[in-house]
Design a protein that fits this description.
The complex is a heterodimer of chains A (262) and B (443). Chain A is α/β, with parallel strands linked by helices and 262 residues long. Chain A is built from nine helices and twelve strands. Chain A has helices at 48-56, 78-84, 101-105, 119-132, 149-161, 179-194, 206-212, 235-243, 248-261; strands at residues 10-19, 22-32, 37-41, 63-68, 71-73, 86-89, 112-113, 116-117, 167-171, 198-202, 215-220, 223-229. In chain A, helix 6 links the parallel strand 9 (167-171) and strand 10. The model of chain A has no long low-confidence stretch (mean pLDDT 86). Helices cover 69% and strands 2% of the residues of chain B. Chain B has a two-stranded antiparallel ribbon. Chain B has a two-stranded antiparallel sheet with strand order 2-3. The chains are: A alpha/beta (262), B mainly alpha (443). Chains A and B meet through helix 2, strand 8, helix 4 and helix 6 of A and helix 8, helix 11, helix 12 and helix 16 of B. The complex binds adenosine-5'-diphosphate and magnesium ion. Magnesium ion is lined by residues 48-49, 91 of chain A.
Chain lengths: 262, 443
């Protein structure tokens, strides 16, 4: 096992987040390197989406440290995360139904020419991007409202890739997709890794995780429950870490194995 | 390398698209390239045929998807005018039509501001009172204190901007529902106006002054109306044509010349017709020129600038806007400032009509008419859909009904009931449109 780079692109150290009475995250640790796909798995309500939103600046963290390329950083709003080079595809898709595909792709970073929206250039680049990603939609000028769920998902992913991000976070990108579109999304994930992006992939589907991820980080009830190497860990081990069926010895052994691998 | 873990059996070459057929562009209007006919065409792609068959099928698709746009209101307007003309042949005379178009500007300006607010999916109940404050402010500053007309005019408009910004800030920053904030504003600013007007109650404006001229000045030269119509038509054609050329050069779908010509003709007919009507009476009204200028400007801001894009984004999804880095508080506050500004401008036109600022200004049916005009014109109550031109169409409908019934000598109770009925029909269309769009979307 070779490290792609010595310093992780993103490292979370002891991150905690609380919503009123709900302690959604407690002392969570996570490292992602460039050119690496880390799968984040866990039961419903384990805190995966919350973790993603803290990284993306939607919910600022209460406690702990976020390190970006080795330096401690504050991520308090979505803009902070974008400025660092973090792109996020949320589980609840962050698209505007009433705006067309081009408008959504460029939302918040519109191309301008003398202060006026450069619709022609945005449309040209959108078509180019969608073609490179072999994404098929009826027209780039129809409102998102008239696209199917799968088509929306691919638009949301394409949107995350526009700004040449260093880290791409995908929150359950394949949950609502059919077989063909799932394969397409997984292809996109591999292409991202080849281009040297770091990727955090949240998924419930073990087959997806096995297919594209390098490491699997398990969250359980808002806490870390082991980080596993995909190649050397069986699906059963991961699932028992998710459900909490593991006794401590097994968890520790798996964790030790992962350390040895490095 | 850790990237080597995928076995060949798992996955095909990741650079190879997963589809069996070739990745396919989605030309909307583009003529089919030679040889492309061989490629299997995804039936879901919207390939529009050339020529009028193409428009027809596109039109049918839009109808099915619930994308009616301004069609219902244009049809409604024609029906209303036809009915009143059949009842009283004086309705479609140059004098009556000219009067309608001058009378509608005050409410129309206020409705323009309301369109901005409705685009957010919010409401502003204070615009009537704020319009009254503007008229009173101008009257007190200019007539009572002898301030110069221009300065008093600017300050009167700014009172609207400030009032709106306050409503917007309380709504956006503190999170009080817009309904409640602007209801408070309705009461407060009405009281403020009465206080400013003082015990006297009515202040008459100089009937030859700046504000009076807003609705009493006509460009009587025949060339003015025709000239404006010609400039508008040529400008429309040139911008459409140049835009289409640019799109062609960039290789993205563009409108064919035939469609641009058709659209230009569709604009030229009412433009020249209106000019002819004005010239039969007193000439081109200044109020109409100013209203059109405002509509062109606001439409440009909403559809061609990043600010406008943000307004639509907020109307579509607040959460998505926030995550796209849009400053929600700033945009919301600014929208209410815009609404207040147009309320004030509208108030000056209304004061101009009666050349006075009085205690009744900004009350009564004004607020309801302004909101109804925006909605009847086709602005969605659900946010994110509409244009400022909707204000023109809507206020034309409402003012036509008022004038038509007045010609018949029918009193305002009936007029309220009819306007209410039209408004109900419009919001029903709006709600049905939204439903149809949703179900068509998930097909
Ligand atoms: N905005 C919020 N306000 C209050 N509680 C929240 C919020 N977001 C998430 N939670 C809670 O945090 C916990 C983790 O949720 P989430 O991160 O969505 O889980 P997952 O994505 O792993 O299924 C849940 O108990 C959820 O109810
Ligand atoms: Mg989730």
């Amino acid at each position: 096992m070779v490290h792609v780079s010595a310093t992780p692109v993103l490292a979370l150290r002891g991150v905690s987040k609380r919503f009123g009475a709900v302690q959604a995250l407690t002392d969570v640790e996570l490292e992602v390197h460039a050119g690496e796909v880390v799968a984040l798995v866990g039961d419903n309500g384990a805190g995966k989406s919350t973790l993603v939103k803290t990284i993306a600046g939607v919910h600022p963290i209460d406690d702990g440290v976020i390190e970006w390329e080795g330096r401690g950083v504050q991520i308090n709003k979505p803009h902070d995360a974008q400025a660092l080079g973090i792109a996020t595809v949320y589980q609840d898709l962050a698209l505007c139904d009433n705006i067309d595909v081009v408008g959504n792709l460029y939302l918040g970073r519109e191309l301008r020419k003398r202060g006026i929206l450069d619709e022609v250039e945005m449309e040209r680049r959108s078509r180019e991007l969608l073609t490179t990603l072999s994404i098929r939609i009826p027209s780039v000028r129809i409102p998102i409202a008239s696209l199917s769920g799968g088509q929306r998902q691919t638009v949301a992913i394409a949107r995350s890739m526009l700004g040449e991000p260093k880290l791409v976070i995908l929150d359950e990108p394949t949950a609502a997709l059919g077989v063909e579109q799932t394969a397409q999304v997984l292809d996109l994930v591999e292409r991202l890794r080849e281009r040297g992006h770091a990727v955090i992939l949240i998924s419930h589907n073990m087959a997806d995780v096995k297919a594209v991820a390098d490491k699997v980080a398990v969250l359980r009830l808002g806490r870390n429950n082991g980080v596993f190497d995909v190649k050397t860990t069986s699906q059963e081990e991961i699932i028992s870490a998710i459900t909490g069926a593991t006794d401590n010895a097994v968890t520790r052994r798996a964790a030790r194995n992962a350390e040895v691998q490095k | 390398m850790s990237t080597d873990k995928t076995s060949p059996a798992d996955k095909a070459d990741p650079t190879e698209p997963i589809h069996l057929d070739k990745p396919h562009e989605a030309p909307v209007d583009a003529p089919p390239a030679a040889g492309e006919a061989v490629t299997a065409v995804d039936p879901r792609l919207l390939v529009r045929e050339q020529g009028f068959a193409g428009y027809l099928s596109e039109f049918k698709r839009k109808m099915k998807a619930g994308d009616l746009g301004s069609l219902p209101v244009v049809v409604g307007l024609i029906v209303i005018m036809a009915i009143f003309q059949s009842l009283n042949s004086n309705f479609l005379t140059a004098g009556n039509l000219s009067d309608i178009s001058v009378a509608m500007v005050g409410t129309g300006m206020i409705a323009t501001g309301i369109v901005f607010v409705l685009l957010l999916g919010e409401i502003d109940l204070s615009v009537g009172s704020v319009s009254g404050v503007a008229g009173a402010t101008f009257a007190v500053l200019n007539v009572t204190h002898g301030m110069s007309e221009w300065l008093a005019l600017v300050l009167a408009i700014l009172t609207g901007t400030v009032a709106g910004a306050i409503h917007g800030f309380v709504f956006a920053r503190i999170g009080v529902p817009a309904f409640a904030v602007t209801l408070a504003g309705l009461l407060f600013w009405n009281g403020f106006m009465l206080q400013v007007l003082g015990s006297n109650g009515t202040i008459n404006l100089d009937s030859e002054g700046l504000v009076a001229k807003l609705t009493s000045y006509y460009f009587s030269d025949v060339a003015a109306a025709y000239g404006l119509a010609a400039v508008a038509v040529v400008a429309f054609f040139l911008t459409s044509f140049l835009d289409s050329r640019r799109r062609e050069a960039a290789g993205v779908p563009s409108r064919p010349l035939s469609e641009i010509v058709l659209r230009t003709v569709l604009l030229a007919v009412p433009a020249v017709g209106a000019a002819a009507v004005y010239n039969q009476y007193k000439g081109l009204p200044l109020a109409v020129v100013l209203f059109l200028a405002v509509l062109v400007l606001t439409d440009f801001v909403l559809r061609r600038t990043a600010y406008g894009r943000k307004v639509f984004a907020l109307g579509g999804s607040i959460e998505a806007s926030r995550r796209a880095g849009i400053n929600v508080v700033m945009i919301r506050t600014s929208i209410y400032a815009i609404s207040g500004t147009f309320a004030a401008i509208g108030g000056l036109f209304l004061a101009s009509k009666i050349t006075a600022a009085n205690q009744g200004a900004g009350s009564g049916e004004l607020l309801m008419n302004a909101i109804a005009a925006a909605v009847i014109g086709g602005t969605s109550l659900f946010g994110g859909r509409g244009r400022t031109w909707n204000a023109l169409l809507g206020v034309l409908v409402i003012t036509s009904i008022q004038y038509g019934l007045a010609l018949q000598g029918i009193a305002s109770p009936i007029q309220y009931m009819i306007t209410g009925g039209v408004l109900l029909a419009t919001v029903v269309i709006d709600a049905v449109t939204r439903k149809t769009q949703k179900s068509a979307g998930r097909a």
